[in-house]
Design a protein that fits this description.
By secondary structure, the chain is mostly helical. The protein has 3 helices and no strands. The termini are far apart.
Length: 108
């Protein structure tokens, strides 16, 4: 854009910003995806796969809580097997499965 074009646009932008400041809001539809850089778009809240769809912050907090819960699920330690036969190995393996189920890491 040449300097002349900028001079013509500046008063319009100034007037628009002044009116928005006076209203203390930015009306819906004033800023569209066309005005945003390609890496600034957030997307629609309704497209979120979270149950929290009221805001991006609420959705992020939900994901953070789910991640924290998942990381806090730790199974009780299972000793290394010293089984000398199939029956002993089956018992050790079943003990491991039981601990994983108790920790919520394996469905029953």
């Amino acid at each position: 854009m040449g300097g002349k074009d900028l001079l013509g646009v500046a008063p319009v932008l100034r007037d628009e910003l002044t009116s928005l400041e006076a209203a203390d809001i930015i009306p819906a539809g004033v800023i569209t995806n066309a005005e945003l850089a390609d890496d600034v778009k957030v997307g629609s809240l309704t497209a979120l796969t979270t149950t929290a769809k009221s805001s991006v912050t609420a959705a992020l907090n939900e994901v953070d809580g789910l991640a924290h819960n998942a990381l806090s699920r730790i199974a009780v330690a299972q000793a290394d097997s010293v089984a000398t036969d199939v029956g002993g190995l089956v018992a050790d393996f079943n003990a491991l499965l039981a601990k994983l189920r108790t920790a919520g890491l394996l469905a029953s």
